[in-house]
Design brief:
Layout (H helix, E strand, L loop, with lengths): L2 H13 L2 H7 L4 H15 L4 E3 L4 E3 L1 H24 L8 E7 L7 H11 L3 E7 L2 H9 L5 E4 L16 E6 L12 H4 L4 E4 L4 H13 L7 E3 L1 H8 L5 E5 L3 H6 L3 E3 L10 E7 L7 H15 L4 E7 L1
Parallel strand pairs: 3-4, 3-5, 7-8, 7-9, 11-12
Antiparallel strand pairs: 1-2, 5-11, 6-9, 6-10
Helix pairs in contact: 1-2, 1-4, 2-3, 5-11
Keywords: DNA-binding, Transcription, Transcription regulation
Protein name: LysR substrate-binding domain-containing protein
Family: Belongs to the LysR transcriptional regulatory family.
Length: 303
Amino acid sequence: MRIEQFEQFIALAHHQHFRKAAEVCNLSTSALTRSIQTLELDLACNLLTRSTRSVKLTAAGEVFLQYCQQALDNHALLKQKLSKFTEAKNEKIVIGYSPEAIGLVPQACGKFMQQFPNISIEMQLQDTDTLLQNIRNGQLDLAINAPITTSSGEMFCLPEQVVMFCHKDHPILQSSPVQLSQITKLPMLATVSTNQALGKLINQAATNLNKQDSLRLGTFEQVVNKLSDRNHIALTTLDLMQQVTNNKELVNLSEMIEQSEKLNLELQIAKANLTAPNISELLNFITLEAGARPEIELAKATF
């Protein structure tokens, strides 16, 4: 197994779709498929269940996903600890990125290091909350993440492993597509997830909708009972998707929300690094790489 395979599996788990995951990993769909098949052969178990439209993690896949995330964290920590033993005191830039940026950060950083071999880059794959915390406390020089909103305040991409649903008689269903401005005005519920990674995705979605402080958690049955008031909407994860589908009183809102087709990313820069020459050079490489991809829209912010 290789480090890049861990990143590929995380991308596939995030997007639940081979073509989308292949695009962010800068691979062909067939190459990603072969890579995942190699993992399954090596581990002697099925990591995914496949359909014509999407893929889902098996129980073994959920375990392997946690291993991938831990392995990448440990890999970054190992490089940090070993850096003091290197003969040359190379300069280092630490950049964090969310799963949405898997197809941008490694490619841009790789090109940068080819031109500047004396400058090392430590890349850390992290969730949204960790990225924001680490860029603010100075543990990261740069971070690339899916932003909470665009300048219009209307951008929101629901994580593909999170499902939004409501009662079939909810007034919001009278308009199609459902507008984000309607969603943000409604009280929100969420099911409790025993899977830490899925729980983080629900928290990310709630944070992006500015519902992190008012979000109420409960079991699936408790959430469904509360939805009968025709006022609340709810979040759950794909492992409970079948229960949403089988309940005739519920409607899946996820596919009805008007969302941008572009991949909106935000490049977050620590204020102390704004004038650092090496950071400026890396910013140029990231900007050029994003500019060469019409599906990516990159904004900048300072912390």
